[in-house]
Design a protein that fits this description.
The chain has 236 residues and is mostly helical. 81% of the residues lie in helices and 0% in strands. It has one domain (16-231). Helix 5 (109-132) runs parallel beside helix 7. It is a multi-pass membrane protein. The chain crosses the membrane at residues 26-45, 57-76, 83-106, 112-131, 143-161, 167-184, 205-228.
Length: 236
């Protein structure tokens, strides 16, 4: 579903009103995923706190890797099974909320709030830019994807080196990369719907777009959390 030519010269098959309806649905799904994560994190830290504390380590590791499978499942099934993809997105959001709750213990409430508000502001600004700009940002995605691949490799290497200074610098790079990806993904999903919306499931495309934007947002949030947490004087 991602192998579409988003060349702006192609004749658009949808009206502005139809495109806006699609975008509203996509952003609503993305916002719903964020709310599910927030609710799951809250419940993990309160209602299910004792159960989580007694959870086997093997189970935690399993839960940590499940989102990768769910993301791939949504990418492959969004067009053929929108309902199943939406269910997977809901489960993925809940699992990430659980993981956020585990990470939150290392940061103060102020740091978490500042990172979330900052991430939301950056996301909204870049999503609006990507959605309403008249420019074709398809080249952005190619460059950013290549840069992201190199970034991930370097990040994995640093996991073994365990250099706090490098991790801190990487956090800034991560914010820049995913900030660009927000605009690029928003622009690309709009172009795909405008040019190919009659060939794919609109609901499935909305779920796929919501997944990509949700992942962009949480990565910005996590990297900003590392920045604000690293620059703070204390952690819980």
């Amino acid at each position: 579903m991602n192998n579409y030519d988003t060349n702006s010269d192609r004749r658009q098959i949808h009206t502005i009103s139809e495109t806006n309806t699609f975008l509203t649905k996509m952003y609503a799904l993305m916002g719903g995923a964020v709310l599910i994560s927030a609710l799951a994190a809250y419940l993990t830290m309160t209602v299910f706190r004792s159960a989580v504390m007694n959870m086997p380590v093997a189970m935690m590791w399993l839960i940590l890797f499940v989102p990768f499978g769910l993301s791939m499942g949504i990418s492959f099934k969004a067009d053929r099974s929108p309902v199943a993809s939406l269910v997977m997105l809901t489960i993925l959001s809940a699992i990430y909320g659980f993981e956020f709750a585990l990470i939150a213990g290392f940061y103060t409430g102020t740091q978490i709030t500042t990172a979330f508000v900052s991430a939301a502001a950056v996301f909204i600004a870049m999503a609006l830019f990507g959605t309403f700009t008249k420019r074709d940002l398809s080249n952005w995605n190619s460059y950013l994807s290549a840069a992201l691949l190199g970034f991930v490799v370097a990040w994995v290497v640093n996991m073994f080196l365990r250099s706090p200074a490098v991790t801190y610098v990487f956090s800034f790079i991560g914010v820049i990369l995913f900030t660009g990806l927000v605009a690029s993904d928003a622009n690309r999903m709009k172009a795909i719907y405008s040019n190919y919306g009659d060939q794919v499931s609109t609901n499935g495309l909305a779920v796929l777009g919501a997944l990509q934007l949700y992942l962009d947002f949480i990565n910005i949030f996590m990297f900003l959390l590392e920045i604000f947490g690293g620059s703070g004087n204390s952690r819980n």
